[in-house]
């Protein structure tokens, strides 16, 4: 093996346009989803390998988050290593030193699991490739490993648009790994995502619990069919330049995600009053000024404002004048579609 001391991966977060909501064991989505990767919201993870001292323990690792030991994260990492062990048998003969940091503040309400799990998966698999003297990395394996850490992380290994989950409409789509969606027009190639931080607090109901509540949900089957249809429609929309059609579909997906939460048993609401206020303002603006701007939501109160780069000045002017006042401490993060993971081998 060539001399390697450390493998570092920067991996982006992503925002889904057609949402993944509901899963079967182990981490198999009940419907396909499509997202685009971001640029600024990312996790940087470094992995070093040392000799394993105590051969009694199955997994030996040290985990640092932003330079500090974080024992709270250990159970999650152990579960993840258990799931991906068959992909990285040689790596797991070592003691792993994992050091991870996010580019966005911890309390910002931005989900970090997609960027964190995809960064860690890439580092570990790159190490396995080095230890076994292989030439080529199979990105599907990295995506598969990422999925086993956090479903939406499967899509973060790619730049641009990625889809995950079997679709009747897209050859090569798969439940175990994401694939890149290369067919889109220039119009959609520079999408911006301005994340309005409406509520930075901890979510009342985690995504894990939310996914579970789709089991036995009265509208689940209908929703899974709708997601299949929406995915097919979005794939067509992305090849054109009709922003209104895009906005109609993306906003409906976001509201449907929350409708599922509001109609599950028990039901719950992650919106805040300001989420609705912002949504209404965006819709009014699009209608009155014909500005190509729309929203999507994650499983939380924050609003992702999406628009093409060509209108960035008008969009940011509108956001700063009319929307930022609804954010907690006026906080927002500007981001845009990105190029995917960056690996450095030291
Ligand atoms: O990856 P998870 O298990 O945190 O679920 C994420 C689900 C959504 O973010 C709400 C939608 C999606 O497709 O990313």
- Described by the principal axes of the CA atoms, the overall outline is globular
Can you give the mean pLDDT? 96
End-to-end gap: 13 Å
Please estimate the helix content: 25-40%
Number of strands: 14
Largest sheet: 8 strands, mixed
Q: What ligands are attached or bound here?
A: (3R)-3-hydroxy-3-methyl-5-(phosphonooxy)pentanoic acid
What does this structure look like?
It contains 8 helices and 14 strands. By secondary structure, it is an alpha+beta fold. A hairpin with a 3-residue loop joins strand 2 and strand 3 (28-29). The longest helix has 20 residues, at 243-262. It is globular and about 65 Å long. The two termini are 13 Å apart. The mean pLDDT is 96. (3R)-3-hydroxy-3-methyl-5-(phosphonooxy)pentanoic acid (PMV) is lined by residues 16, 19-21, 33, 111, 113, 150-152, 207, 257, 298-299.
Reconstruct the topology from this structure.
Blueprint: E1 7-18, E2 23-24, E3 28-29, E4 33-51, E5 60-65, E6 68-69, H1 74-84, E7 94-102, H2 113-131, H3 139-149, E8 161-164, E9 178-180, E10 192-196, H4 207-212, H5 220-237, H6 243-262, H7 273-289, E11 294-297, E12 303-307, H8 312-323, E13 332-336, E14 342-345
Parallel strand pairs: 5-7
Antiparallel strand pairs: 1-4, 1-14, 2-3, 4-7, 4-8, 5-6, 8-9, 10-12, 10-13, 11-12
Helix pairs in contact: 2-3, 5-6
The chain binds (3R)-3-hydroxy-3-methyl-5-(phosphonooxy)pentanoic acid.
The site of (3R)-3-hydroxy-3-methyl-5-(phosphonooxy)pentanoic acid has 14 residues, from loops.
């Amino acid at each position: 093996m060539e001399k390697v001391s450390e493998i570092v991966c920067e991996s982006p977060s992503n925002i889904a346009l057609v949402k993944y909501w509901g899963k079967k064991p182990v981490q198999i989505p009940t419907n396909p989803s499509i997202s685009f990767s971001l640029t600024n919201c990312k996790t940087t993870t470094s992995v070093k390998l040392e000799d394993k001292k105590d051969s009694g323990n199955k997994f030996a690792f040290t985990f640092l988050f932003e330079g500090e030991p974080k024992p709270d994260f250990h159970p999650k990492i152990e579960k993840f290593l258990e799931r991906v062990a068959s992909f990285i048998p040689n790596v797991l003969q070592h003691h792993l030193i994992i050091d991870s940091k996010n580019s966005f503040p911890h309390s910002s309400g931005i989900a970090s699991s997609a960027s964190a799990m995809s960064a860690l998966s890439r580092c570990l698999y790159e190490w396995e490739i080095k230890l076994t003297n292989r030439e080529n990395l199979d990105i599907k394996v990295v995506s598969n490993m990422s999925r086993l850490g956090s479903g939406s992380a499967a899509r973060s290994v790619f730049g641009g648009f990625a889809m995950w989950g079997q679709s009747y409409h897209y050859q090569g789509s798969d439940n175990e790994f994401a694939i890149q969606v290369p067919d889109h027009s220039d119009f959609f190639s520079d999408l911006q995502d301005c994340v309005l931080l409406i509520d930075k607090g901890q979510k009342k109901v985690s995504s894990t619990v939310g996914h579970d509540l789709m089991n036995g949900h009265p509208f689940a089957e209908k929703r899974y069919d709708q997601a299949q249809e929406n995915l097919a429609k979005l794939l067509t929309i992305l090849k054109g330049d009709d922003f209104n059609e895009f906005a109609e579909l993306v906003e409906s997906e976001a509201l449907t995600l929350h409708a599922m939460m509001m109609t599950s048993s028990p039901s719950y609401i992650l919106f805040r009053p300001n989420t609705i206020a912002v949504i209404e303002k965006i819709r009014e603006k699009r209608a009155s000024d014909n500005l190509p701007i729309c929203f999507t939501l994650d499983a939380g109160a924050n609003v992702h404002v999406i628009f093409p780069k060509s209108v960035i000045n008008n969009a940011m002017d509108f956001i700063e004048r009319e929307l930022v006042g609804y954010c907690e401490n006026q906080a927002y993060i500007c981001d845009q579609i990105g190029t995917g993971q960056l690996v450095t081998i030291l």
